[in-house]
Amino acid sequence: MRDQFVEQLDRMRYDLAELCSVTEAAIDRATHALLDTDLAAADRAADLSADIDIRARELDHRALTIIARQAPVAQDLRALIAGMHNIADLRRMGTLAGHVAEVARLHYPEPVVPYEVRGIIADMGTAATAQAAAAGEVLRTRDYVRALELIEADGRTDELLRTLFAATKSEDWLYGAASAVNVTLLGRFYERFCDHTVEISRRVIFVVTGELPDEP
Amino acid sequence: MRDQFVEQLDRMRYDLAELCSVTEAAIDRATHALLDTDLAAADRAADLSADIDIRARELDHRALTIIARQAPVAQDLRALIAGMHNIADLRRMGTLAGHVAEVARLHYPEPVVPYEVRGIIADMGTAATAQAAAAGEVLRTRDYVRALELIEADGRTDELLRTLFAATKSEDWLYGAASAVNVTLLGRFYERFCDHTVEISRRVIFVVTGELPDEP
Lengths: 216, 216
Known about the structure:
Two copies of one chain form a homodimer.
Chain A: H1 2-35, H2 39-70, H3 74-107, H4 115-141, H5 144-169, H6 176-209
Helix pairs in contact in A: 1-2, 1-3, 1-4, 2-3, 3-6, 4-5, 4-6, 5-6
């Protein structure tokens, strides 16, 4: 009985990490769609986003069933409750990746990101992909130090967003209001995507230690 | 024992509805700060946002403790798990109200919202306040019909956001890119705030019926 339960928990943990790697692929494809005006990549990101939604529902249902049937306590209960919150974060990450792809698709074949801020958006895309990869690793290994590193790394994303907003609000911005609106939304999508990886890492620390780390 | 448990659940439900009414006050004050360039209202919204955070943590901890100690099943378990997700939504609503107030504060004493879209932002503010009030009522009464009405009403907010984006992206937009960026972020904050009230309503329906309603 206990063995079966442990196996269920392990499988849940593995499937969560797996779901996280789908969000990684989704944001990677979305960024590619955006920066290379690649419609096939936008389609792929949309498909992955839909897939994340389906998997998330299934996992959520499974976690609830385990809690109802096994009445877990202490660390097991924390892991399952944290898991359900993580599922919600991963779903949202999938939705945000879908939003990025949708912006690319709406403007296709026009590029959305002006040359001047292309580097910043590319860096945000790279950061988002890397943070999703790191969150997957944190979910799989429950490595406390890696989780703290991820939380620390997120400061860089916030900095990129500030730089992006400063560029669009500067008097030197030459691309008009419509372009500024697009870039603002994109920046916000990436930043929120990364925020969710931080939330996941904080929750893994909570599962391991029983204490939530301070807000970054 | 059972009586005490029922009392704990009732109190949790009451406190969640109460927390929701704090988010209502926070977004109301934030909107006031924004549209009337009122610094005291911005301060009040920031205070309420911080208060929401503290209350949410306390409630979250309490829900986890009840699940661990009472090992609830069926509808009680659904209510507690849904409650923990609702707490996360209410926290986020508090943060978003804080973001709106922060935009007002950063530009004080300059007004942030250009005359042309003032009506749209005012309508979004009114909708957000009304939806928070309705979500509080749904949490308190678990009224299925009221929850469905709230989900329906949210279509109006999405429409307002589309109108707002169309205005900022139009060739007639006279207020420059910086202003477009502010307005875009504000619209997004309000729309996300309202989305969370929809999530709360969907979860209340889940608690009552055991089935999640379709995504709006």
